[in-house]
Amino acid sequence: xxxxxxxxxxxxxxxxxxxxxxxxxxxxxxxxxxxxxxxxxxxxxxxxxxxxxxxxxxxxxxxxxxxxxxxxxxxxxxxxxxxxxxxxxxxxxxxxxxxxxxxxxxxxxxx
Length: 111
Fold this sequence. Notes:
Elements: H1 3-8, E1 16-21, E2 27-31, E3 34-41, E4 44-52, E5 65-74, E6 77-85, H2 89-110
Parallel strand pairs: 4-6
Antiparallel strand pairs: 1-5, 2-3, 3-4, 5-6
């Protein structure tokens, strides 16, 4: 343990990084004059995630793959510091294969 870790003490909150899918349809609530998006992530099922919505914060949907950096500050409630869309290579590959198959079927039909 380094000096910085000792100075922070046990009460300090550590940021956690996770990439996962949004499990449910996010709920939008107004609390203390701020709008918040509340949702769950499949990879951390017991934790409720909250992010303060700004005018530029994109709304997310169920099933979207996101990259989160968050801190758990209350009992199973995580406050999101950053949230970005995470590319899903497998879904892209499947979608491209289906698209290629439809093009090939269309070409075969016209020949």
